[in-house]
Amino acid sequence: MPYDEALAARIRAVVAAERGVSEQRMFGGLGFLLDGNMAVAASSQGGLMVRVDPRTGLDEVTEHVRPMEMRGRVMTGWLHAETPAMASERDLTRLVGLGVAYARSLPPKR
């Protein structure tokens, strides 16, 4: 399944003011990187992948936000948000902000 183009456009609008943003197709989805570090992605599985601090990311788990799994393996430092978790622009902005904050905490990959 390809990623959700409408979600990608919503993410693009949230990160538009950030410096060093680039987009990259990966794993059937569309990733948004900041200075070369992945922050969030419109997932090919539907929903949003969010990069988070591995030490505190599980604090964000809710009914519609869970640890990311790929091929049956939990991906430490990544969350998967289902559509209801980002129904409002405020919710999406908060989730994208988590990914942006963590990506900004990493050294640039240029």
Which range does the strand content fall in? 25-35%
Structural class estimated from helices and strands: alpha+beta
How widely separated are the two ends? Answer: 31 Å
Strand order of the biggest β-sheet: 1-2-3-4-6-5
> Could you say how many structural domains there are in total?
1
Counting DSSP H or I runs of 4 or more residues, the number of helices is 2
Name of the level-1 CATH class = Alpha Beta
Major sheet attributes: 6 strands, antiparallel
What Rg, in angstroms, do the CA atoms define? 13 Å
Give, in order, the helices and strands: HEEEEEEH
**What is the arithmetic mean of pLDDT?**
94
> Any low-confidence stretches, pLDDT <50, length ≥5?
none
Q: Give me the CATH fold name.
A: Aspartate Aminotransferase, domain 1
Helix content: 10-25%
Based on Cα principal axes, name the global outline: globular
Q: What's the β-strand tally?
A: 6
CATH-level-2 architecture: Alpha-Beta Complex
How is this structure best described in words?
The chain has 110 residues and is an alpha+beta fold. It has a single domain, classed as Aspartate Aminotransferase, domain 1 (Alpha-Beta Complex). Helices cover 25% and strands 34% of the residues. Strands 1-2-3-4-6-5 form a six-stranded antiparallel beta sheet. β3 and β4 form a beta hairpin. α1 crosses α2. The longest helix is centred in the C-terminal third of the chain and has 16 residues. It is globular and about 35 Å long. It starts with a helix and ends in a 6-residue tail after the last helix.
